[in-house]
Amino acid sequence: MEPVRETYGLMPEGTDVLMYLVLIPFALVFVYGVFYRLRTIGVRSFRELVSNIVSGLPEMARYGLLQRKVVGEKLAGAMHLLIYSGMIALFIGTTLVFIDYDILRLLGLRMLRGDFYLLYEFVLDVMGLALLGGLSLLFYRRFIKHEERLRNRTEYAMVLAGLLFIGVSGYVLEGVRLALEPRPWGDWSFVGQSLSKAVFSSFPAPFLTTFYQGMWWSHAVVAFAMVALLPYSSLGHLFSTLLNIAVNAPKQLPLGKMNTPFRIDELDPTAEIKLGFRTIAELSWMQKLGLDACTDCGRCEAACPAYAAGTPLSPRDIVQKLKKAIWSENGGDRDVFASGLIDEEEVWACTTCSACIEACPVLIRPMDYIVEMRRALTLEGKLDKRKTAMLTNLSRYGNPYGFDPSEKQKFFQELAAMGAKTLDENPDAEYVYWVGCASIYDSRGREIAKNLVKILVKANLSFAVLGDGETCTGDPARRIGEEGRFQELALQNVETFKTRGIRKIIVNCPHCFNTFKKEYRDFGLQLEVLHHSQIIGELLRTGRIKPVRPLAEKITLHDSCYVGRINDEFDAPRLAVKSAARPGGFVEMRRVGRNSFCCGAGGSTYWYEVKRRDRESVIRLREALDTGADVLALECPFCMQMFADAARITGAEQKLKLKDIAEIVAESLEPS
Amino acid sequence: MKALVFGEKPEQTASLAAYLSKSIQPETTYAAAFTEYSPTELETVGGAGVKKIYVLPDKNWHAGPASTAHALSELAKQNGVDIVVVYASKKGNEIAARTAQRLDASYASEVISVERSGDAFLVKRLVLGGGYVASLLLRHRPSVVSIKPASENIVPGDKPVVERLNIVSDAPEVKFLESIKPEKAHVDLEKAGVVVAVGRGFKKKEDLAMAEELARIIGAEVGCSRPISGDLKWLEEERHIGLSGKRVRPSLYIALGISGQVQHLVGMRDSKTVIAVNTDPNAPMAIESDYFFVADLYKILPITIESLKKKLVS
Amino acid sequence: MPDVVVCVKQTVDVYQLKPHPETLAPQIGQAQWKNSDFDLNALEEALRIREKHGGKVYVVSAGHDVKPLLVRECLAMGADEAFVLSDPSLEKADGSATAKVLSSIIKAKIPRWDLILCGEASLDQNSYQTGPRLAEIFNVPHVSYVTKLEVGGGGIKAWRAVEDGVEVVSCNLPAVVTVGLEINTPRLPSLLMIRAAQRKPLNELKLSDVGLTSNDVMPKAETVEIKALKTERKKQKFEGKPEELAERLAELIISNVGGRR
After folding, report:
1. B189-C259-B306 Cα angle (round to 5)
2. What CA–CA distance (Å, rounded) separates C260 from A455?
3. Are the beta carbons of A401 and B231 separated by less than 8 Å?
4. Distance separating alpha carbons of residues A365 and A319, to the nearest angstrom
5. Order of strands, edge to edge, in the sheet holding A586-587?
6. Correct CATH for A274-382 of 1.10.390.10, 3.30.40.10, 2.30.30.40, 1.10.1060.10
7. Is A254's Cβ below 8 Å from some Cβ in C?
8. Is residue A386 within 8 angstroms of chain C, CB to CB?
9. Which among A73, A572, B69, B159 is most buried, taking Cβ atoms within 10 Å?
């Protein structure tokens, strides 16, 4: 007897037709739900939706089907992968039955027969175990381990129960079937076979038949119900995440790049002024799609430094609250701040470190919503004193501190004495070293600049400084949401660079670095921008500088957000530090590279105060102390200031010295 | 030359008269009051140089500055005074301004000195944020100035003539409803004349008592760098001086154990004179101060405090 | 619906002012100009009154060289209309001249108003004069140093900070109120808003437009000299025995505290 799939084998005649009749209302509910959800999000044109999806198919495959980012976390990733693959396999299995029974059979053909059928039975039993394994992990994470970031809602428990029931009842059906009608190939369905032998073989056949039919219908109806509820429940993430990935991923700007909603120099003075959003209704359907795709997994929250520091911000809450507003009655038209949905402090607490974007498995960008809300707040200008002062300082003095710009001269004279000529004196210089406010006006920052100049002079690099021509890049204005003042500075700088024919610049501030590299493109400036770690790395590689005296201390390195995660430069600073370290004198922190943790100064937060329990810098400094290093190597003057404060607070000033990589390398170049 | 002086309180009126006796030396100094002075107070203003005091009904005071200004300008006119000098309290300044407007007079507020210069008065006052001294000539008679002379010991003298006068004023009225005394001393760092600022050079919260005592004996407000208030919570947030706190501009700023990171410096750079105490000779504060003491504040502060106590008592 | 007039002075940015190294005179020509801080608090308060009670907010500004861009910032904050008067004779204007010009503008151009709001003092002169003088000219009550203001029922209730606490007072409208920095945080118009404010009415006036001649605005208090108190930090460093340093410190404190106590 050839093994073959016995569909409806133990069911009364006509079950197949009845089942399809039962399926119809469920299917209708499902279809209605899909349309309802898409309409609420604001999808108006089906064609537009499809064309957007098509253009995002590669991303959908990569991040959706292949789960590129989901598996980034071990336990959660494994859990999801098991459930995901189990469900897909069982779905394919069921689809194969449909093809086999409802199509091929009518044509007198069968597919689920012979060796293929045996393999089918085996694979489905394995994948069923995968599903149950995944669900057990889910149960463990939510109800035993009580992972902090997981929130329990009744709905989540019900979904879990439904899936468990489908998985378990499938095996039960198999077991009962094999008990009633044992087959020689039954061992291929190893789970069902074991159940059959261990449990069901002792029951009387009539009971089993009735039980089987009851169980069969419950299995079917629960499965139908899950399908029907899909668009209305958290299971909807099956589609919503894929949609978000397909539609939004291809359009997403690189990290660190904000969109340019207008050009101040091309602005129509009569046009209505709008910037950012204060109501859900102002969001595009694509932005809403991003909100809708949130599964409440909490990875962004776990990665968020502002959340860790006990500020009111959780990127997950931002997205979840906005998502909820999409669905609540009139929620779309309500002002998110005035209605109390979102507290302004949440929005101001963000350091724009982009860790939430990095963490999101389904490519939602919580930070983007935050900065758009900032833009709306800043447009109105009802800001607190500090923010107002910073912006006023930028427009007025060209530096956010509010220092008299003429104070620059003195420092540039000092640099000139070390060999850093101005571009006026050295117009043929290959590079321009843009020193940046934090290294001009802050004495600690000035040490960084001096050491960098020392290195560049030693390497005989052809470079110059701008001197009086330097102003702020406008970064703090852009991050705080004051696009106009940012552009005013950006256009001024672009003009300077163009008229002076500057093509290559060196910066030692990651914020200047990112702004020149990514933001200025929208204003017609393509520059070769090197962070000082990169030029130092290059000089080391080419042998133009040679460390002669390794540092005696043990060194660890803090990856800054805007050079590291946001601009993918991890190697150059390591090369620089390692070149100056003694053998075995370099040690990594627990969180490195893309997982590094913000010092708390980014996104303009340096310039004002946010309610908090802790400081990002203190949390991070403790991590540095944990490595047992004597020196914390830094690549950003703002990180330097933040950690200097943190060291004072924790009393770690003597234990851990803070040095910029330029200082470390410069030290290693001097014979003792 | 005749002068009319007015202060909200008897001792203020006395200090004005005493100051004028030293500076422009009027032949006659009149004073205005809206309450009865006690015999001792009369002896004090008399000793300060007041020859005659007009006591006006207190409703001229309670009905608000317009009414008070009306009364003062009537007195000035009746006596043909050359200069009206008002104690530069907050109320004094607004009354002086209205009085000057009523009299169509030359007026300089919050002056630091008054001299005669020919027929005119030469006054000096701080302008442009306090970093500059302006000299002004007041040529019109009468002139009005407001000034806050330093208090000094006044030897009581003969009581001035007391004249009770009723000036009926229809000036627009401001109704006084209630006075709210501050629950705890309000910290007004931004307006403080002397600030003692503390930083992480202090190891324990209890040690701040040294700084507080110093502040108390020299009449200063206590401020701090961000870690002290924001992180350690040793002091209230309203005492935080710096980028995300207050910006102060006192005439004397004493930085104790503050290294002088840029976040702090932006909050205190406009101080007139800066004295700093820090163990690190290379602390950034060194180039931001007029007098920089390379010392352990724990060693020198107790001695300084004792010494100040002795000096200030004598 | 009270109509509010806000007097805004443009002053040199005193924080960036540098004295001439020899004459010690302020180099005003090199410095930037701004709207005087307290006056922006007054404008902010006017805008808040309008948000609550309706009415109009007018900005009035006078000076020897009023910068339209700075007036535009006031309009961008939300003022409905601005009247500015520039005349070279106002360069040495004192409190009396300023009050004269401002009151003349108000009389000529804003016949109906309920409240005049001013900063309690200006950033450059710090004279505490304009508000009380205007009140005297219009013969209305004034309240100075206000840190909280309520408008309603044809009058105002104001909380004002004086030396020994806070006084709560009330008076009828029309009135003049001067405000301190504590009353609010002025909104900062974003650059986009400043651009958009180009559409709002900004009326530029001459002395003759308000019935004045330069003789009418001669100062009664004439500034004859302005000199910087000091230029640079002394940067003196003291090292040595604690006892000696402590004594030195005490002396320096006393000489710098001086008669302040």
Report:
1. 80
2. 51
3. no
4. 9
5. A586-587, A555-557, A631-634, A657-660
6. 1.10.1060.10
7. no
8. no
9. B69
Count of all residues that appear for chain C in the document: 261
* pLDDT band (50, 70, 90) for residue C258: low
The pLDDT of residue A151 is above 90: no
The token pair that represents A298 in the structure block: 């909490």
Share of chain B above pLDDT 70, in %: 98
Residue A560 has pLDDT above 70, yes or no: yes
Contact B284 A444 (CB under 8 A): yes
Give pTM, 2 decimals.
0.89
pLDDT of the residue at C188: 95
Q: What ranges do the domains of chain A cover?
A: 15-245, 274-382, 390-669
- pLDDT greater than 60 at residue C261: no
Q: Is A150 on the interface with C (CB under 8 A)?
A: no
* Alpha carbon distance A604, A620 (integer Å): 19
Mean pLDDT to the nearest integer, A610-639 = 96
pLDDT average, residue stretch B50-66: 94
Structural domains in chain B plus CATH codes: 2-164 (3.40.50.620), 189-313 (3.40.50.1220)
R_g (Cα) of chain C, nearest Å: 21
Picking from A441, A445, A645, the nearest residue to B227 by CB comes out as A645
Cβ <8 Å between B308 and C254: yes
**Which residues have a Cβ under 8 Å from the Cβ of C156 and sit 6 or more positions away?**
C115, C143, C149, C150, C170, C171, C173, C175, C177
CB spacing of A615 vs B261 below 8 angstroms: no
Instruction: Summarize the confidence of residues B255-272 as an average pLDDT.
Output: 88
Tell whether the model's pLDDT for residue A91 goes beyond 60: yes
CATH topology of domain A15-245: Fumarate Reductase Cytochrome B subunit (1.20.950)
Return the SS3 of B1. coil
In what order do the strands lie in the sheet containing B120-127?
Answer: B161-164, B52-55, B28-33, B2-6, B83-87, B143-147, B106-117, B120-127, B132-138, C221-228
User: What does the alpha-carbon distance between residue C110 and residue C4 come to, in Å, rounded to a whole number?
Assistant: 10
- The dihedral built from the CA positions of residue A338, A341, A343 and A344, taken in this order, carries a sign that is negative
pLDDT above 80 (res B151): no
Whether C192 sits inside 8 A of A391 (CB atoms) is: no
What span, in angstroms and rounded, lies between the C-alpha atoms of A192 and A396? 78
Average pLDDT over all residues of chain A: 93
Check if the beta carbon of residue C48 is closer than 8 Å to that of residue C187.
no
Check: CB of residue B84 under 8 Å from CB of residue B195.
no
**Both structure tokens of C55:** 């009415």
Where do the DSSP E strands lie in C110-220? 115-119, 142-152, 155-162, 165-172, 175-179, 202-205
pLDDT band at C259 (very low <50, low <70, confident <90, very high): very low
pLDDT over 70, % of chain A: 100
- DSSP assignment of C160-185: EEETTEEEEEEEESSEEEEE-GGG--
pLDDT tens digits, one per residue of A245-259:
999 999 999 999 999
- For A81, residues 6+ apart whose C-beta sits below 8 A from its C-beta are A67, A70, A71, A134
Instruction: State the CATH class of domain C4-217.
Output: alpha beta
Higher-scoring residue by pLDDT: B287, C258: B287
| Angle, vertex CA A280, rays to CA A279 and CA A281, nearest 5 | 90
ipTM: 0.89
For Cα atoms C126, C130, C135, give the angle at the middle one, nearest 5 degrees.
150
H helices then E strands: how many in chain C? 6, 13
Q: Where are chain C's structural domains?
A: 4-217
Calculate the CA A9 to chain-centre distance.
49
Q: Is the pLDDT of residue A545 over 50?
A: yes
Report the alpha-carbon angle A70-A71-A72, nearest 5: 90
Q: What is the structure's pLDDT at B183?
A: 67
